[in-house]
Specification:
Helix content of chain A: 25-40%
Strand order of the largest sheet of chain A: 5-4-3-2-1-14
Number of helices of chain A: 17
Shape of chain A: globular
Radius of gyration of chain A: 25 Å
Structural class of chain A: alpha/beta
Number of strands of chain A: 21
Oligomer: homodimer
Distance between the termini of chain A: 55 Å
Chain lengths: 546, 546
């Protein structure tokens, strides 16, 4: 049996466009010999639709679009992810996270998602009622167990037992001999490999071929990486689809797989691809043709400009060249060199005049204008003000290049570097910034190697921020990973991992006290297991000393 | 039986402080003759703790604090709301939203919340496992049914049937002859009356006296209004506690109530109190002694300054007087008059020099510097930049006075008026701003009546924003209430309510397209049924045309 796997990039709520993309992929798969075509979870809706689903008419429009798709479906069935009403009379959540099996002009099967993730960035229990039983159905001589996202996530693969159901076991009991999973499983570093290993275990456990069709694209700060997989009943890989690309493939599931799923652990390359897809999708879905940003010759802004060019093409990237905070002439030279290498349009401006006039006004009312943070704050906000005026004037999307390490410890300014359109690196720690910069150079040296090396060296030493001495970034990043991503306590980090107590406590307090800044920061692109914002919802003001 | 009701104001995660407050209230109630003392839902934790509860050590610290309270409890029992572990082996959510009945040095009963709200701003299903059965317990000749928050919320009082359990019915079956409800039920206009009417129905249905102890204070943009109530078995009011004040009262539940609960519908006064409590609590819990803001003589900034003085005292309010956007001398005069009436410290500054220098720099790179939105954006950001430097220099909390109507339609600037510390009016529509201004004047004319009247008149007419003509605020506010608060579709608003189609569609598109701005806006104080942010989580970028 040949299955067409269409890893679609859906826009949240844009039913006409999503239906069109599904139909295009469906026809292409049929032409290529598919006997069933599969699209991702919520392919018709775009995941995550959040509170939009609480509008009844949103769901009604979705069902209209589903009927249209059913009408267009011929002898080859089409599996679509969508949102349905639960029941207007029975108690329970009002909606279903649903999959439809469309065939010969009609909706033949409707399947409800059973396990509804409600942790990290997931909120599904807020909206959806789980299925009460999992049943397989017959088609083409097979008995198909159709599952949605989390339904196949075994408890060993999430952190602790949450669920009291096991959909795969229920489907196996019901005789399923083919498991299809449609998913919208977001990317973070290590996720493609982790997911592949889960799928292997699921296929073996079900003793049936497994088709997983995963979404692609960025919605709501989440990047979906595709990487759809087809495994045989022994968990061996029959075929895979590429990461970070919307595409389709027709795979014969009766073939035997040759080996274990071979998702490589290529984190930097994956993050690079994820960020490019993120910029591309955010700009396109938000309706911007071009982007703008400040290029000051440092590694972060050089990296963001390079990524933007990869995402949108050189003609769509317009930069303001402004010297960095040390006002070094050298930084402008580096920026200009990069502009030339990338072939992008640039405008030179200086913040000096505006900064001096602000100092003049503030000199009369401030007791300590020389406080370095007051001074840096003014510079950062003047830069942002000029950039936003430029962006508004030309209808460009603004990109910011502040990194996750600085966002974590609050070394950003609201209304300044943290308040811009899309914060490309807001989930990329400083150390990964350097790795990405080196990766960006792999074809051609865009960002001076000497600069990256200097920054790598610098990140091993402490530096000044305001009047404070900040621990080395290499240390901050390691502690942040333990504290934020793995949620360890200070005690565990100090005693279990041997870090210096003062440094650990310093990082922890900075992280906790700056939640209010992060909650006003620009949206970013999630690439780690725990991005701020959607994936970590801490109170802004609280008294817990961790 | 005399019950001490202590409507406490808890800080999220500050266990030592919360435990101390609980113990102070407990002792005061005992001294006043209480035979049981009740505190609100999560009184030991502070509601909502959000993802903090996902840290195991957070829960462990909470349990330590609970043990301390148990040790301190004598012959008079104490009911405390807290967070507990569920079970490390059984599947299910890891935690419980819990109530403990402490007596003579020990924890005698532990009750788990059964109905876990997961709509609007509530997320409880993400964290907590519901109780599997509701049991009453004996004390002092009574059989007590102890419930938490949502457990008593009958389906007629939430919008649709969600739950498959009825805790009150279960407790009644188990012989409960006294219902105690500890809650953290947040305020919005109309809520105190709505809640009182629910409590009346619950008491009648249970045919038992009902004690509801509700939290007070602001946490995470939510104001808890107290207004605790004690009703007899016929739903008549025996006693009530005041709104928006942390206090306690000892009430004899064997008394007969005299009449139906008489919560008045005094929305403007309630909103006024809620905003004052919000400013007070936010500043205090975030550790700021004083606040600063821009006073430009318009109604909004005058109102916020007046509220801040009520909240914190005149000495804690330091304003920058800057002329309004029309640069009217009159506006400065009004601001100075208010400063004198309120007795607050002020500093005059002008944005002209900085604005002119920004225009100079931008004049060279912008094609259309005269675009009014570019121009206003620069002014707004220069104001914010100066204010933030002033605030930083003095360690003041920044208050913003932008209203909900403008926030709804995107008429605010990121990095400008929308990016400040606490957005006092971000959930107050323009029309309510006028009502609050009049209310503020009830003792003494602080804000010139003539100004308020002029603004009220102006809000009946359309005005210009940028190059666009904006519908009258009175109309915008009515449509916003239907579209945002009641979630009606444009069609329903046009056909069902008779509003002009163009205006309705204009408002709807503005609301939908500006979600990205709101998601970067400063936190506010929720006073309507549907505040942006926590209560309405729409995707930032989406394609649904409502």
């Amino acid at each position: 049996m040949k299955i067409g796997i269409a890893q679609i990039n859906s826009n949240i709520g844009d039913f006409p466009r999503n239906a069109k993309r599904i139909m295009q992929a469906y026809r292409a798969c049929v032409d290529a010999g598919a006997e069933i075509v599969v699209t991702p979870e919520m392919s018709l809706v775009g995941y995550p639709p959040r509170d939009l689903v609480t509008k009844e008419r949103f769901v009604s429009k979705c069902l209209q679009a589903l009927d249209y798709l059913a009408d267009e479906t011929g002898d080859v069935p089409l599996i679509v992810g969508y949102v349905d009403f639960h029941d207007f009379i029975q108690p329970g959540r009002p909606l279903r996270n649903a999959a439809a099996f469309l065939h010969q002009g009609g909706v033949r099967q409707k399947i409800w998602k059973t396990l509804l993730p409600s942790y990290d960035m997931f909120d599904e229990h807020k909206y959806f009622e789980p299925s009460s039983e999992c049943k397989a159905f017959n088609f083409g001589g097979r008995r198909i167990g159709l599952t949605i996202g989390e339904d196949i996530w075994l408890e060993d693969y999430i952190r602790r037992p949450i669920y009291q159901r096991d959909p795969i076991a229920e489907l196996k009991d019901d005789g399923a001999d083919l498991i299809i999973n449609i998913s919208a499983s977001p990317f973070h570093t290590g996720m493609p490999k982790h997911r592949a290993s889960l799928l292997e275990v699921v296929a073996c456990g079900a003793n049936a071929p497994l088709v997983c069709c995963n979404a692609v694209g960025m919605n709501e700060q989440l990047v979906f990486d595709g990487n759809s997989l087809v495994l045989d009943a022994d968990g061996n890989e029959i075929s895979n689809l590429p990461g970070f690309i919307s595409c389709f493939k027709v795979v014969d599931i009766t073939e035997r797989g040759s080996e274990a799923p071979s998702m490589r652990s290529i984190d930097v390359e994956d993050v690079h691809k994820g960020l490019i897809l993120g910029i591309q999708d955010y700009a396109q879905k938000a309706g911007f043709g071009a982007v703008t940003m400040i290029l000051d010759g440092n590694v972060e802004s050089s990296l963001v400009a390079s990524l933007a060019v990869r995402a949108l093409g050189a003609e769509q990237v317009k930069v303001l060249v402004i010297p960095d905070e040390t006002q070094a002439v050298e930084s402008v030279c580096r920026a200009i060199q990069l502009v030339e290498k990338l072939g992008i349009e640039h405008t030179n401006i200086s913040v000096d005049v505006v900064k001096q006039s602000a100092d003049l006004v503030l000199g009369e009312i401030l007791t300590d204008l020389d406080h370095p943070l007051v001074d840096q704050g003014i510079t950062s906000r003047v830069r942002a003000m000029l950039l936003m005026a430029y962006a508004r004037n030309n209808n460009y999307l603004v990109l910011s290049s502040a990194n996750k390490s600085d966002l974590s410890i609050g070394h950003q300014f609201i209304g300044g570097d943290s308040s811009l359109g899309l914060a490309v690196l807001s989930d990329v720690p400083k150390i990964i910034v350097h790795k990405l910069a080196n990766f960006t150079n792999s074809e051609k040296e865009l960002i001076p190697k000497a600069l990256i090396e200097r920054e790598e060296e610098a990140s091993k030493n402490s530096h000044k921020y305001g009047n404070e001495t900040v621990p080395p970034y290499v240390l901050i990043d390691l502690i942040l990973e333990l504290y934020v991503n793995y949620q360890l306590s200070c005690d565990e980090i100090i005693k279990g991992h041997g870090y210096d107590e003062n440094t650990v406590r310093w990082v922890q307090r900075k992280v906790d006290l700056n939640e209010w800044k992060r909650q006003q920061a620009a949206p970013g692109i999630r690439v780690t297991s725990r991005a701020f914002g959607m994936c970590r919802r801490m109170p802004t003001v609280q008294g817990f000393i961790d």
